[in-house]
C-alpha cells in the first residue's frame, strides 16, 4: 500500500469518484486554477475541465445554495469550504435547505451533496480561523457529519460520502493535510456511521476523532510505558454516532475518556457521555472524563493557543483520573 | 383587432386564476375555523403572476417559490385536495403534512417547493438552472421571491454567478409592495427591484403583475432568451396582495383607501372583460367555469377535512434517505394514480460538454492582462 498525505488521499478519492460518475463536480474558492487553497484539488482542473472543477466567487452562501439546488435535480456536488469558519456564512443553505428538503417534501426530494473542508485550529490564526465547529452541525437531523483522522479513512469516507444519498459534511483537520499514512489503492470505501478501534486496550477507552486522535495515540504510547493499556476508539462519524462501538468498548474497559478539540458545552462528547451513562452505567468503574478545548476564544499568542487546546499531557491526566491514579 | 390569443388559452388562464382565488378564500375560511394553523400566506390579488408564466412555460421547466406558494402549483396542475390537505396537516397532503402551507412540493409537476427563509430559495434556482446547463438540457428554471428578498445577500451572490455563468433562470420578483408590514419604499435604497439586475449585467425589466397577459408575454420572451443561452432574466411583477401578509396579519399598516384603489385592478375581472370584449365568450361560459371550480374546491376542502392525520411512525421517515429507498410520489401514494417521475441521467449516460471557462480563452485573457502564470 502506498504512503500518501491526507490531502493526496482526498485528491485521489475526488478524482476516482469524478471519473466514476459524471454527475459529480467540485466547486469552491480556489479549487481550480489555484489548485486548492490546501492543494486538495491539485491537478483536477486539467483532468476534468472548468464545468466540473469550478472556481467560485467568495460568496459561500451563494455557491453552497446553488449546489444544493443542483443536487435537488440529480447532480452530486462536492462543495469545498476553504475553511469551515467561512461555512458559517452558508449555514442557512446547509441547515435550512439541504438538511430539510427530504422532510419538507414528504420524501419527494433527495439532496446528495458533500460539504467538505478544513476544520479545527490552524497555526496561530486567532479566533475567526481556529474553531472546531463540527458539533454545530452534528445537532441537525437530516445531515451526516464525518471527521476522519487518517489518510486511509479520509479517502474511503470521502468516497462513501459522495455516493451517499444525503447531505454529508466532512471536517478535515487543517493540520492533518500533510500527515502521511498507508492508503489502499482504488475501490476503498469506508462506510459512514462506523467507528474504528484504532488501538486495542483493556484498562480505559479513549474516544475521539479527527486531529485529537494523534494526541490520544501519543498519550496511549506514554501510558503503555507505565503499564496502562489504553483502547483508542476513533468515532470517524459524529452523526449518526456508532453507539454499538462506543458501548462495546466501554463494556470491555469499564472506563472512558472523551477527547474533543471543540468547546465542551453542547459538544459531541456530551452526547457520547449521555450514551454511556444511560446504557452502560453499570459497566462503569469511574465517572467519564472529558478533555475539551477551553471555554474561551482562540488567541494568537503561541502559549495561549497551546493552552487552549487538548494535548497528550492533558489526556494522560484524564486517564489517570478515571483510573484513580496519582496526580488526579 | 382580433386577439392574438386563442380562446382556449384565455379561458384556461381565467379558470386557473379563479381556481387560485377560490381556493385561497376557502383556505382563509378554514384558517378562521382553526383547521389550518401556522402561517397561511394567501395569494389573493397576485393570481396573474403565477398563471401567466405557467402558461408561457413548458410543463417540464423547473419552478420554485417562497412561502406564498399555493398559487403556482395549483396553476401547474397539482391536486387541489392534496394541497388543501397539506395546509390542514393531513397525511394525504403533498408532503404528508410535514411541510404545511409554506412548503408545498409537487415534483411530478416540476414544482420544487415553497421555502420559508426569505431569499433562501434564490440560490437553489440557480443551481437547478446550472444542472440544466451541465446536462445540456434546454429547460429553464423559474424562481419566485418577494420584494423583501431583494435585499438579501443570497440574491446578490446568486445574480453574480447566474449572470457570469449564463444560467437559464428567470427570477420573478412578486413586488406586492410590502415585506410583511414594511413598505418596500421604506427599506430599499432602490425600490424598483428590476434595476438591481443591471449591477450584474443581467437583463431586468418591470412587468404589470396585475395583467396575466403581460406576465405571459414577459415570461415567454424571457424563456426564449434563457433557452438561447443568453443568461438569466429578472422580471419585477408589480402586484398587490388584497389580504394581509399572512392570515395572522390584519394589515393595519395600509389605508382602506389604498386597498380599495388597488382592488380596482383585480386581474380576474380584467381578464374576463378582455375576453368578453374580444367576443370570445360571454357570461354563461364564465359562470360554468366558476361553478365547476367552486365544486372542485368544495370537494378539495371535503377531501382534506375527511383525511386522517399522518401516522406517528411518519416521524421517523423522510429525514435520512436509507439505502435503496425510493422517492415518494404523492399522487401515486394518495390517489393510486400512476405518475411519471423525473429521471436524471446516471453518471455513465451523462457527457459533460460544457466549458464554464474555456481554458484557451482564459489563458488568452490572462496573457492580454499581463498576468504571469
UniProtKB/TrEMBL annotation, chain A:
Keyword annotations of the record: Oxidoreductase, Pyruvate, Thiamine pyrophosphate
Protein name: Pyruvate dehydrogenase
PANTHER family: PYRUVATE DEHYDROGENASE E1 COMPONENT BETA SUBUNIT (PTHR43257), PYRUVATE DEHYDROGENASE E1 COMPONENT SUBUNIT BETA (PTHR43257:SF2)
Required cofactor names: thiamine diphosphate
Transketolase-like pyrimidine-binding domain segment(s): 4-179
UniProt keyword GTP-binding, yes or no: no
Domain of life: Bacteria
Pfam families in the record: Transket_pyr, Transketolase_C
InterPro entries linked to this entry: THDP-binding, Transketo_C/PFOR_II, Transketolase-like_Pyr-bd, Transketolase_C
Entry's Gene Ontology molecular function annotations: oxidoreductase activity
Native source organism of the sequence: Myxococcus xanthus
NCBIfam families membership: PRK09212.1, PRK11892.1
SUPFAM superfamilies: Thiamin diphosphate-binding fold (THDP-binding), TK C-terminal domain-like
Amino acid at each position: 500500500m502506498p504512503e500518501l498525505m491526507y490531502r493526496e488521499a482526498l485528491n485521489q478519492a475526488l478524482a476516482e469518484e469524478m471519473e466514476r460518475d459524471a454527475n459529480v463536480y467540485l466547486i469552491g474558492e480556489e479549487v481550480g486554477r489555484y489548485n486548492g487553497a490546501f492543494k486538495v484539488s491539485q491537478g483536477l482542473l486539467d483532468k476534468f475541465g472548468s464545468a466540473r472543477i469550478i472556481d467560485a466567487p467568495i460568496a459561500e452562501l451563494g455557491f453552497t445554495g446553488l449546489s444544493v439546488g443542483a443536487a435537488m435535480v440529480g447532480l452530486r456536488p462536492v462543495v469545498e469550504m476553504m475553511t469551515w469558519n467561512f461555512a458559517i456564512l452558508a449555514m442557512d443553505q446547509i441547515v435550512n435547505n439541504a438538511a430539510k428538503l427530504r422532510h419538507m417534501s414528504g420524501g419527494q426530494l433527495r439532496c446528495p451533496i458533500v460539504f467538505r473542508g478544513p476544520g479545527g485550529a490552524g497555526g496561530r490564526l486567532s479566533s475567526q480561523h481556529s474553531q472546531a465547529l463540527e458539533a454545530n452541525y452534528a445537532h441537525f437531523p437530516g445531515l451526516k457529519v464525518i471527521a476522519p483522522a487518517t489518510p486511509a479513512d479520509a479517502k474511503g469516507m470521502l468516497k462513501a460520502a459522495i455516493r451517499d444519498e444525503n447531505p454529508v459534511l466532512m471536517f478535515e483537520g487543517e493540520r492533518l493535510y500533510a500527515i502521511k499514512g498507508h492508503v489502499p489503492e482504488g475501490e476503498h470505501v469506508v462506510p459512514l456511521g462506523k467507528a474504528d478501534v484504532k488501538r486495542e486496550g483493556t484498562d480505559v477507552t479513549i474516544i475521539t476523532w479527527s486531529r485529537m486522535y494523534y494526541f490520544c495515540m501519543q498519550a496511549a504510547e506514554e501510558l503503555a510505558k507505565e503499564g496502562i493499556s489504553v483502547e483508542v476508539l476513533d468515532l470517524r462519524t459524529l452523526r449518526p454516532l456508532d453507539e454499538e462501538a462506543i458501548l462495546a468498548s466501554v463494556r470491555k474497559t469499564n472506563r472512558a475518556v472523551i477527547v474533543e478539540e471543540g468547546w465542551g458545552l453542547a459538544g459531541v462528547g456530551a452526547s457520547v457521555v449521555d450514551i454511556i451513562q444511560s446504557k452502560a452505567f453499570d459497566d462503569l468503574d469511574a465517572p467519564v472524563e472529558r478533555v475539551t478545548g477551553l471555554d474561551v476564544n482562540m488567541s494568537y499568542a503561541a502559549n495561549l493557543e497551546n493552552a487552549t487546546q487538548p494535548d497528550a499531557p492533558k489526556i494522560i491526566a484524564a486517564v489517570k483520573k478515571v483510573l484513580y491514579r496519582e496526580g488526579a | 383587432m382580433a386577439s392574438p390569443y386563442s380562446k382556449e388559452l384565455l379561458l384556461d388562464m381565467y379558470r386557473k386564476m379563479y381556481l387560485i382565488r377560490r381556493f385561497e378564500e376557502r383556505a382563509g375560511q378554514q384558517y378562521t375555523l382553526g383547521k389550518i394553523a401556522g402561517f397561511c400566506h394567501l395569494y389573493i390579488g397576485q393570481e396573474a403572476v403565477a398563471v401567466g408564466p405557467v402558461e408561457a412555460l413548458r410543463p417540464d421547466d423547473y419552478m420554485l417559490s417562497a412561502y406564498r406558494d399555493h398559487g403556482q402549483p395549483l396553476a401547474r396542475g397539482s391536486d387541489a385536495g392534496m394541497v388543501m390537505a397539506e395546509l390542514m396537516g393531513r397525511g394525504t397532503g403533498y408532503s404528508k403534512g410535514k411541510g404545511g402551507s409554506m412548503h408545498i412540493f409537487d415534483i411530478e409537476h416540476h414544482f420544487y417547493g415553497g421555502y420559508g427563509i426569505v431569499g433562501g430559495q434564490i440560490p437553489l434556482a440557480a443551481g437547478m438552472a446550472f444542472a440544466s446547463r451541465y446536462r445540456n438540457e434546454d429547460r429553464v428554471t423559474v424562481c419566485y421571491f418577494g420584494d423583501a428578498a431583494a435585499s438579501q445577500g443570497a440574491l446578490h451572490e446568486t445574480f453574480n454567478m447566474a449572470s457570469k455563468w449564463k444560467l437559464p433562470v428567470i427570477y420573478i420578483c412578486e413586488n406586492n409592495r410590502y415585506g410583511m408590514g414594511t413598505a418596500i419604499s421604506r427599506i430599499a435604497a432602490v425600490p424598483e427591484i428590476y434595476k438591481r439586475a443591471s449591477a450584474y449585467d443581467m437583463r431586468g425589466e418591470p412587468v404589470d403583475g396585475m395583467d396575466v397577459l403581460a406576465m405571459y408575454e414577459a415570461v415567454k420572451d424571457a424563456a426564449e432568451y434563457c433557452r438561447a443561452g443568453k443568461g438569466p432574466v429578472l422580471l419585477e411583477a408589480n402586484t398587490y396582495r388584497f389580504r394581509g401578509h399572512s392570515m395572522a396579519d390584519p394589515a393595519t399598516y395600509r389605508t382602506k383607501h389604498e386597498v380599495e384603489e388597488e382592488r380596482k385592478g383585480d386581474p380576474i375581472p380584467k381578464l374576463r372583460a378582455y375576453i368578453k370584449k374580444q367576443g370570445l365568450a360571454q357570461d354563461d361560459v364564465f359562470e360554468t367555469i366558476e361553478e365547476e371550480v367552486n365544486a372542485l374546491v368544495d370537494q378539495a376542502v371535503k377531501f382534506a377535512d375527511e383525511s386522517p392525520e399522518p401516522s406517528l411512525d411518519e416521524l421517523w421517515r423522510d429525514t435520512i434517505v436509507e439505502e435503496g429507498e425510493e422517492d415518494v410520489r404523492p399522487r401515486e401514494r394518495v390517489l393510486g394514480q400512476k405518475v411519471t417521475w423525473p429521471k436524471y441521467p446516471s453518471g455513465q449516460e451523462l457527457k459533460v460538454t460544457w466549458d464554464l471557462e474555456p481554458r484557451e480563452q482564459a489563458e488568452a485573457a490572462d496573457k492580454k492582462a499581463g498576468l504571469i502564470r
